[in-house]
Design a protein that fits this description.
By secondary structure, the chain is an all-beta fold. The chain has one helix and 13 strands. The termini are far apart.
Length: 158
C-alpha cells in the first residue's frame, strides 16, 4: 500500500459506538445502552493528560451469505479498536470503482491471535496475544457493522 495517496488530510472521527435496546422493528428503549466500544485518543483536560482509550471487541472477520438477506459469521476475532471514521464522500469515487459497496462507518482494528480450538484446561479461558507479522502489529480496516460486542481481556501474570 505504499503507492496509495489520499486526497484528503482530515477524516470525520467517532469516539464511541453503542448498541441500544431497540430491535429491528423499533421496539425497546433507545435510552438504554446495552453495550459500547470506545476509541478515544490521548488528550489534555486542563493541565491533566487523559490516557488513550481503545476498547477490545469481538469482530466478525469472515462471513458467508446464507440467503439474499442474511449473512452468517463463521470466524470471530478479538481486535482492539483504535479509531472509527468515515471517508469524505468526494474521495470515495477516486479511491474505489462504482461497483464497490463501501460501508459508511469504518474502524481501524489491531488484531489478536485467532481463538484456539479449546480453552485452557485449568482456567477455562482462551489464551490470546497480539497478532504480529515480522514484529509488526496486524491490523485491518473493517465495517463498524462487523463489530459484534465489546470484550474484556484478562492479563495472565506469571
Amino acid at each position: 500500500a505504499h503507492d496509495v495517496h489520499f486526497l484528503f488530510h482530515r477524516l470525520p472521527v467517532f469516539h464511541k459506538v453503542k448498541w441500544c435496546s431497540v430491535d429491528a422493528r423499533g421496539h425497546g428503549d433507545a435510552r438504554v445502552t446495552l453495550d459500547s466500544v470506545h476509541a478515544k485518543p490521548q488528550h489534555k483536560l486542563g493541565s491533566r493528560l487523559i490516557a488513550r482509550r481503545s476498547d477490545t471487541a469481538l469482530v466478525c472477520k469472515l462471513s458467508v451469505s446464507v440467503s439474499m438477506y442474511y449473512l452468517l459469521c463463521i470466524e470471530f476475532r478479538v481486535g482492539q479498536v483504535r479509531v472509527m471514521f468515515t471517508l469524505p464522500p468526494k474521495s470515495i469515487p477516486l479511491l474505489f470503482p462504482p461497483t464497490v459497496h463501501l460501508p459508511t462507518h469504518l474502524a481501524y482494528v489491531e488484531w489478536f491471535t485467532p481463538f484456539p480450538p479449546a480453552p485452557d484446561h485449568n482456567s477455562g479461558l482462551y489464551k490470546l496475544s497480539r497478532s504480529l507479522h515480522g514484529g509488526d502489529t496486524m491490523a485491518s480496516i473493517v465495517s463498524v457493522a462487523d463489530i459484534e460486542c465489546s470484550v474484556h481481556l484478562i492479563l495472565r501474570f506469571g
